[in-house]
Kinesin-associated protein 3
Amino acid sequence: VVLGALARVLREDWKQSMELATTIVYIFFCFSSFSQFHGLITHYKIGALCMNIVEHELKRHDVWQEELEKKSKTYILNAVSSEGGVASCILNLT
């Protein structure tokens, strides 16, 4: 009953809290040390669920990486533009 409830919470709520998902996956990992629980872990498809979680997190990582690269390019362009503007102001003053 408890493993069923944990499996349901993991299946339904893992996107809402990565900390909760990590904790529940670790609990299943601990249970997997005992062969008596292998059938239940297989029945609740915890392995497939873990793979879905990992795939989703890899996609999120790729999106974050792309956003970081875009923001970094924008920052560099803004810095170069402002340096050019400062230089022209100084030249105009002299």
Observations:
- The mean pLDDT is 88.
- The CA atoms of residues 1 and 7 lie 10 Å apart.
- DSSP finds four helices and no strands in the chain.
- The first helix runs from residue 2 to 13.
